[in-house]
Amino acid sequence: MRGVAIFLLVALTGCQVVGTYSRDVASMSPEAEALAGARAAVSLEDRYGGIFRDRSAELRMRGVGRCLCEGTPALEGCYRYRLLNSDSVNAFSLPGGRVYITRGLYERLGADALLAAVIAHEMAHLTYRDHFRPGCDGDREVVLREKAADALAVRYLEAAGFDPQVMVRVLLMIGDALPRGSSDTRAEALERRTYGTTGNVAHANARE
Ligand SMILES: [Zn+2]
After folding, report:
1. What's the 4 CA to ligand 1 centre distance in angstroms?
2. pLDDT digits over 1-55, tens only?
3. Angle at 193 between CA 188 and CA 198, to 5 degrees
């Protein structure tokens, strides 16, 4: 039986509802998913200042994304990268492989490894199809989903030869944009899960 369920815009910092989709998501074709993503893209781009055209940034994002895909055969490589003309610090993904980074975040991603961490996190959301999973009120389920995406991103980074510690650095970097205390929580969880330590997080906090 078909029904209607919420469709989420998934971000580096959490998620928000952007529309609805047919509830029988298991039988949704890739084309139908891409169409849902394309529809949501219109409102996302509108909300975040439109597309910021920067040819060299787009080439750089594509190159880093290709690098991640080459390291992980499971990633199919059908991703499109765009900058949003917004000072806010965030990244988003939508079904169909659309990955967006705000100009405000991109300007902080001087090293390719940092950019790779942001893209890998969004690829992880797409792999898990988090856009079609219910729950989006800062509840425990959403926090667990973010931590799972962080952890899968680390695996993508490692497979592509990037220093996986950059995922922790990105979480600390975007701390201001996250719910209070959330960046430390996610960074600590990631360090504990991946390295059995929270040394870097404690060190970063001590410098502040
Ligand atoms: Zn996320």
Report:
1. 23
2. 456 666 778 888 877 777 777 667 777 788 888 888 898 899 999 999 999 999 9
3. 35
Separation CA 102–CA 111 (nearest Å): 16
pLDDT tens digits for 89-142?
999 999 999 999 999 999 999 999 999 999 999 999 999 988 888 766 567 788
User: Residue 87: pLDDT above 90?
Assistant: yes
- Phi/psi for 160 (5° steps) reads -90, 0
**Rounded to the nearest whole angstrom, what is the distance from the C-alpha of residue 1 to the centroid of ligand 1?**
30
Its pTM stands at: 0.88
Tokens representing residue 162 in the block: 């990037």
Ligand 1 center to 108 CA (angstroms): 18
> Could you tell me the distance, in angstroms and rounded to a whole number, from the CA of residue 69 to the centre of ligand 1?
19
Q: How far is the CA of 128 from the centre of ligand 1 (A)?
A: 11
Length of the chain: 208
CA of 3 to the centre of ligand 1 (A): 26
Cα-flanking dihedrals φ and ψ of residue 164, to 5°? -65, -15
Sorted by where each begins, the domain ranges of the chain are 4-207
